[in-house]
Specification:
This protein is an alpha+beta fold. Helix content is about 30%, strand content about 25%.
């Protein structure tokens, strides 16, 4: 059985924003990947960016003003 880990999960209001964030994260070297939005998060988009919690400050710094997100949550996934 896989052990759950704490992740920072970014929810988006549109698929376009999620895909833009994925592209920018890869370009900026921010570790993570797109996942289906967890049911614990209410969002209009079915995709979310999952990353290690230590990547969150870099994500917020580098993507602020470039991508709109609905919220960032700390979840055990």
């Amino acid at each position: 059985m896989r052990r759950k880990k704490l992740r920072s999960v970014v929810a988006f209001d549109s698929t376009h924003e999620a895909l833009s964030a994925e592209s920018l994260c890869h370009a900026e070297g921010i570790e993570g990947r797109l996942i289906p939005t967890p049911v614990a998060i209410k969002a209009d988009c079915g995709l979310a960016w999952s990353m290690p919690p230590e990547e969150r400050p870099l994500f917020e710094e580098r993507l602020s003003g470039k991508v709109l997100w609905a919220g960032i949550y700390e979840l055990e996934l």
